[in-house]
Amino acid sequence: MLVRLMYASRAAESVNQEALAAILKKSRQHNPASGVTGVLCFSEGLFLQVLEGGRLAVSQLYNRIANDARHRDVVLLTYEEIGERKFAGWAMGQVNLSDLNASLLLKYSETATLDPYAVSGGVSMALFNGFVATASVVCS
Q1: Which residue among 78, 95, 97, 111 sits deepest, i.e. has the most Cβ atoms within 10 Å of its Cβ?
Q2: What is the Cα–Cα distance from 64 to 109, expressed in whole angstroms?
Q3: pTM of the shown model
């Protein structure tokens, strides 16, 4: 059974580009073996990530993230059983938010600031899908 999970968290410490690259590299090395795919957005200390794969593998990965000291305020935004993946081609893609048009944020929230804590899980997923559709996704 395939599932899709979306969560948000705040970085416990400052995350620079080097640290973010290390997180993505590790994900891209380990996720294929467990069948997990997904996309990560990171902006101003905030992680927004969608994970897809088998129920057990996704649940185990989410639990590791939720218990990781590098994350705080971990919130499960959506969890659903799915018939097919949206992000099958990415062991872990990254949305390049520097290319994002602020009007997309304003479409779904009060301000042009990414804040999944201030909107519903459904709105967060719609916004995330908009990120993927309008911003470039880095996969390497």
Answers
A1: 95
A2: 29
A3: 0.86
